[in-house]
């Protein structure tokens, strides 16, 4: 792709659009809470906020570049291949700016619309990245491409590319339908790679792989169990002789490490510990921001809490994982999409542990217990401070309390 048509570092226009970012995503409430050690106390309500929460560097960068793109090309048609990040308010804001979405949801196929695009069109690749063949097709069309792929995702891509180049199959711990996982799997075809990958969702699916490696099930049974995560032409008998483990960056770290360890043990059992390096490789590719938010939540859960509130998109993998962690310790845990989900005695939330692609939202009354209440609060990496501040405001108002005490 011609360098003048491909942009990965923005347009050095942060100063011009900073006021827009501040208007849309800054929160005085959150800033006041930070000054008080991430603690909000008003009346008989105490809200403890995790030390790490909300927008990570990669998301902030992607949002920044999207705003810069609109500023740089005010008269051009601007498209994005799919969700910029998994946050509905953020994606709605891009639509308000006139940025057109080529697909929505996990099943979207924006590449089917690429033939309608040309050199005058500007295409934004989201923070999750995009499959190799999509980028190639956009290059063929001569489009202007603004690539906002997160640096942590790029690190995984490099690892998967290396696996493929040395003849290893990439076993990817992730959700096979997720945009990031699809883009990561496509990296196996780059630069002479073998194109081999297998996506496993969890330890249950990993057990099918280890059973095959140990000879407990045959190739046909493995295909029956995991065909949805296999690359085209996957041959278990050949393609699981040498494997490297990688992951979708927003998965639970402890689960990714467990997946890697289970496969390592199976390969050692089959080929011998002394030959393991010829058959197995593992590199920790968990995003640092994902890990920081999970670690901060574990620390927060060491406090006595009556209620836990987790804010972020229902289709946000990292937010869903935070909700799962919280629910294990605090039964009254509520995963809400945004601050408006709190409406006095009512709360709209997604049950922790329900499918990532589920859009189910339930309304519950009496979510806030009577008397003194201790609330923990965190937010996924794609949740702006404005939504976190709104949630805090609505929690206090649900108890008839004012923000005056924390804003003065």
Automatic annotation (TrEMBL):
Isopentenyl diphosphate binds at residues 86, 178, 316-318, 382. Its EC number is 1.17.7.4. Pfam families: LYTB. One of its GO terms (biological process) is isopentenyl diphosphate biosynthetic process, methylerythritol 4-phosphate pathway. CDD domains: lytB_ispH. Its cofactor is [4Fe-4S] cluster. It catalyses: dimethylallyl diphosphate + 2 oxidized [2Fe-2S]-[ferredoxin] + H2O = (2E)-4-hydroxy-3-methylbut-2-enyl diphosphate + 2 reduced [2Fe-2S]-[ferredoxin] + 2 H(+); isopentenyl diphosphate + 2 oxidized [2Fe-2S]-[ferredoxin] + H2O = (2E)-4-hydroxy-3-methylbut-2-enyl diphosphate + 2 reduced [2Fe-2S]-[ferredoxin] + 2 H(+). Binds 1 [4Fe-4S] cluster per subunit. (2E)-4-hydroxy-3-methylbut-2-enyl diphosphate binds at residues 86, 178, 249, 316-318, 382. The keyword Lipid metabolism does not apply. Pathway: Isoprenoid biosynthesis; dimethylallyl diphosphate biosynthesis; dimethylallyl diphosphate from (2E)-4-hydroxy-3-methylbutenyl diphosphate: step 1/1; Isoprenoid biosynthesis; isopentenyl diphosphate biosynthesis via DXP pathway; isopentenyl diphosphate from 1-deoxy-D-xylulose 5-phosphate: step 6/6. Keywords: 4Fe-4S, Iron, Iron-sulfur, Isoprene biosynthesis, Metal-binding, Oxidoreductase. SUPFAM superfamilies: Nucleotidyltransferase. GO terms for molecular function: 4 iron, 4 sulfur cluster binding; 4-hydroxy-3-methylbut-2-enyl diphosphate reductase activity; metal ion binding. It comes from the Bacteria. InterPro entries: LytB/IspH, NT_sf. [4Fe-4S] cluster binds at residues 56, 150, 287. The active site is at residue 180. Dimethylallyl diphosphate binds at residues 86, 178, 316-318, 382. Catalyzes the conversion of 1-hydroxy-2-methyl-2-(E)-butenyl 4-diphosphate (HMBPP) into a mixture of isopentenyl diphosphate (IPP) and dimethylallyl diphosphate (DMAPP). Acts in the terminal step of the DOXP/MEP pathway for isoprenoid precursor biosynthesis. Belongs to the IspH family. This is 4-hydroxy-3-methylbut-2-enyl diphosphate reductase. The gene is ispH.
